[in-house]
């Protein structure tokens, strides 16, 4: 049991030159800041450590490393093994408007060498940040040029490094961090298999699993014609909407933004029905289903019944029966859950919305 828990701890380095936007994105993703509030954040001094519990069974040991030259030199010399040892993921952030881009790449290359020496099995993600400052027509070309140049300096990670254009002012930040988190989750494949089974049982067009605290998508299952949905950023749009709800609830109820959660949100249109509900203590499930009250009600009941099955994924050593057995035994588990009560404040929203709201979410 203890070994399994240790295996679920992941050391993540967040690095880049000072002012690149590392702490801003960390605060938005993990501390429920909104973009306009990060201006008051100061520069990171040396290393700021954060232990972030994610989906119950995954602990992110996040090292936000100050990017001033003196700190970086110290990381590469006196603290080399301490900083770069046992790393699962390196996230390196480049400022797209940096006037010292080549010097930034040299610093990145030195860090890559240290990582290759101390943690050769690590995964590298490069975020080319502040893309909102570039004219829209030039963004794609500039991103590709910078990514190719940085790739050439990635040495042993050249073929595996992943690049993302990001900004704190749009959904691109959520898209990048969703991919990072997906890589870190040890049982993502098992979760996807269960979601696929559940989607077939309830006839869902799409199921999307979100982590409750960060509102990041964990994974999704898309079926049938929903695969042709032209809104490829709809998952990140919903992340943004969920974050906005949390901020609004925190503002109007006095609950800290990290603790504010809603029990359920429902949207019904003539073409589809959509709802977001709590699946486990650590996750919310979004479901897009056909426009039928019978299907809608049956889906909600079946999700209620399968909650204990998904909750078991937090304990790696427990046996996992099939999803049908989960339906069979879940009534008793749900009764015990009601007796314990939900310790998180929650609010129920039920919306019959105009079509433009559904369009904003990425469904038509």
Automatic annotation (TrEMBL):
One Pfam family cited in the UniProt record for this chain: Gtr1_RagA
Compositionally biased intervals (Basic and acidic residues): 331-343
BP GO annotations: cellular response to starvation; negative regulation of autophagy; positive regulation of TORC1 signaling
Any Gene Ontology CC annotation: nucleus
UniProt region (Disordered), positions on chain: 321-344
Record keywords: GTP-binding, Nucleotide-binding
GO MF: GTP binding; GTPase activity
Role noted for this protein: GTPase involved in activation of the TORC1 signaling pathway, which promotes growth and represses autophagy in nutrient-rich conditions.
Assembly, per entry: Component of the GSE complex.
PANTHER family xref list: RAS-RELATED GTP BINDING RAG/GTR YEAST (PTHR11259), RAS-RELATED GTP-BINDING PROTEIN (PTHR11259:SF1)
Family to which this protein belongs: Belongs to the GTR/RAG GTP-binding protein family.
Protein known as: GTP-binding protein
